[in-house]
Design brief:
about 160 residues, alpha+beta, Alpha-D-Glucose-1,6-Bisphosphate, Chain A, domain 4, 7-stranded antiparallel sheet, 7 strands
């Protein structure tokens, strides 16, 4: 893995769904006031998958604080991945979700993740992490979200 600094990753997906239905993976705890706490909790499935690879997945997989919230249009968070000590050591990055309702029941979701000084997290989120079982990053998350919201079924595991 190269230590080159990646400034930001931007992903956009169009989903036949309303803006209010966004969510992914384990349960989240979120205080939508600026400075409010954000915690992404690991699901039992995430813990079992980690255990199968010899990795102990913590109860809190991601933490941070709310920077800005305008539900359901925009949410900006500080974001720190806690599932791996090397990722946690990179510290906080900045993550913004922007959702725009289009016509005919379609919403445009744009995810911008500012990753300055977080090369390991950038590799994980781009889907190029060298670790086994790390998944496909934001592309995977957004593809699964689109599938779930449009069909009612997540990707098979």
């Amino acid at each position: 893995m190269n230590d080159r600094t990646i400034a930001a990753q931007v992903y956009r997906v169009y989903i036949r769904s309303t803006a209010q239905r966004y969510g992914y993976g384990g349960r989240s705890e979120l205080d939508l006031r600026p400075g409010g706490a954000y915690r992404g909790l690991a699901s039992e499935e995430m813990k079992q998958a980690g255990g199968a690879r010899g990795v102990q997945v913590p109860d809190v997989a991601v933490d941070g604080t709310v920077v800005d919230a305008d539900p359901p249009r925009k949410l900006t968070l500080s974001f720190r991945m806690l599932m791996d000590p090397a990722l946690a050591a990179e510290g906080f990055t900045r993550l913004t979700y922007e959702i725009e309702e289009l016509r005919d029941g379609v919403a445009k979701l744009t995810v911008t993740h500012e990753l300055e000084n977080a090369p390991k997290l950038a590799a994980l989120l781009s889907g190029t992490w060298e670790g086994e079982g790390a998944g496909g990053g934001w592309s995977w998350v957004l593809s699964e979200l689109k599938t779930l919201l449009e069909t009612g079924k997540p990707f098979p595991r």
